[in-house]
Design goal:
- The protein has helices at about 1-10, 40-45, 70-95; strands at about 20-25, 55, 95-105, 110, 115, 120-130, 130-140, 140-145, 150-155, 160-165, 170, 180-185, 185-190, 195-200.
- About 20% of the residues lie in helices and about 35% in strands.
- It has three helices and 14 strands.
- The protein is of the alpha+beta class.
- A five-stranded mixed beta sheet has the order 5-3-10-7-8, with no helix packed on it. The chain has a three-stranded antiparallel beta sheet with strand order 4-6-9, with no helix packed on it.
């Protein structure tokens, strides 16, 4: 299970968003040397969230003669069984409802909330208010996307937040002949920060 979680994290995928389908090794009925491991493979789904772990039987799949590998017919049969298991999973998920709630932090607004089904793609849209810029879509503290328009595939009930940050503004002075300027020190300030400046004519 740890390896599965690490792969999803490395690929930037959400936890429990992709099912694991594990196939049995060559079975005892056809002389499999490692057939005793099949009971362990059959128990793998117990370590996963519901509908996220499956196993595929190798019963009746012929081997290549070494007790370890299937022959070409056996591999084709196992491939079909994997496909059937995945198609059954997709159908089951397509009938499973979930709720996607989109919220906006200070500085903008966001749309895309929906009562939908697992596997459906939604379009989330964020728009910053004046003085702010979009900072990303977040699931808790995990950043999902940096793009204001985000295609999101529903995998379970989820609250997704659009976050915004204040723009930086640069304050600088240019003095012309005939006077000086005094006031807030030149530099970078957040949008909306009060500053003062006074033009002082030369004597």
């Amino acid at each position: 299970k740890r390896g599965y979680d690490n792969i999803l994290e490395d690929l930037g995928l959400e936890p429990n968003s992709i099912p694991l389908i594990a196939g049995e090794v060559v079975s005892a009925e056809v002389g499999g040397s490692c057939a005793s491991h099949n009971s362990i493979i059959q128990s793998l789904p117990n370590s996963f969230s519901p509908n996220m772990g499956y196993w595929v039987s190798s019963a009746g799949c012929p081997q290549a003669g070494d007790g370890l590998h299937f022959n070409s017919e056996g591999y084709r049969t196992m491939g079909k069984r994997y496909a059937e298991k995945m198609l059954a999973h997709i159908k089951k998920m397509a009938d499973t409802p979930c709720s996607i709630t989109v919220v906006a932090g200070e500085g903008g607004r966001a749309t895309g909330s929906a009562e939908t089904f697992i596997g459906k793609e939604l379009t989330l849209v964020a728009k910053a208010k004046r003085g702010y810029h979009f900072a990303g879509w977040y699931d808790g503290e995990k950043k999902l996307s940096i793009y204001a328009t985000y295609k999101y595939t529903a995998v379970n009930d989820k609250t997704i937040e659009a976050r915004f940050e204040l723009n930086n503004c640069i304050l600088k002075y240019t003095e012309a002949e005939g006077g000086t300027v005094e006031g807030t020190e030149a530099g970078t300030y957040k949008y909306g920060t009060p500053v003062t400046m006074t033009a002082i004519p030369a004597d």
